[in-house]
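dumping this here before i forget
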Amino acid sequence: MESRHRIRAGDAIDMSDVEDGAVDLVVTSPPYPMIEMWDDQFAGQSAAVAAALEDGDGERAFEAMHECLDAVWHEVARVLAPGGIAAVVVGDATRTFGGRYRVYPNHVRVIEALESVGFDPLPDVLWRKPTNAAAKFLGSGMVPPNAYVTLEHEHVLLFRNGPASREFDPRATRRYESAYFWEERNRWFSDVWTDVRGTRQERDDAGDSERAGSGDERGEGTDRAGDDVASGAGKSATVDRSRTGAYPFEIPYRLVCMHSIYGDTVLDPFLGTGTTTLAAMVAGRDSVGYELDPGNLSALDERVVDVPERSRRVVSERLAAHRRYVREARADGTAFDYEATHYDFPVRTRQEREIRFRVVDDVERVGSGEDAGDVEESQTEYLVQYAPVGDA
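structure:
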């Protein structure tokens, strides 16, 4: 099995090189309007944003920033197949303008935007990010009534393109090989995720650090080398890579496994340093990504080197976790009625029997511009080869 991953340095408001309905799943995290770290980017894209910020008009700036994202959502609607799923990770923001402190509900505005392009909202996920922050609120401290709760969650918004689900041939092997375990399903399809840690990134230009996307302007801590990040949209704005939004690998990997099958195409229109691409590689899906800042894409080259090792680790952990679950369930008296076809362990349901994992054997950078002949300078492509993992 192989997968292909096409990366474009450009604005996702124009995805004309992607055919109508060619994408099966969208997994993305846009820049969050009204988080201060994104002000320059949005202002560089829109004079209306710049004017609203200059005037100190938070409501007007909020709407103008979302209008920048709206153009991308229209293109997403064109390229996503009927019945395809769009997963958008977004956090709300808190901000003070002119002495007025309030929350800006980004998740509400994104839902409105995607509904307006014909998507049906589905039950979503609240991702509650564990934090070690000592201060858990803003405002007046220990004395009521003027303290505010701290935003420690983000929304994983889920949509379907149109009213009908995707249809598959009942004998489609790749769909059943893409199954997840019963216990994974119970954890992944919960509407609250507390088992995925967030990441942090340093605000080098500000002289301190900020927890991205949480709405907490005071955050603390810095990234470890190679932390997963997602970037954003804009026509001409330049993205400073020291100011990128935290996006842990587990989030897109989980969403890709939940809502696509081997061989599907995953799109991220706000690619950043390519965490969604890495997740698609590990999960055995094709991908397409757009990113404004070529510097972020050069970082992707560095991260792709580790994909084979990451793939082996992820698959090993999933298999080990299932074996552990089987031992514990049997100790509690649970009976298993089915045996996995490709492995030496039982599974809970008939649908899990054909589950089959693959690990990345090799990643080849096809090239860009001069290196690839007919591939444009703004485009890079990776070809990934896989080996099946089985012991039965």
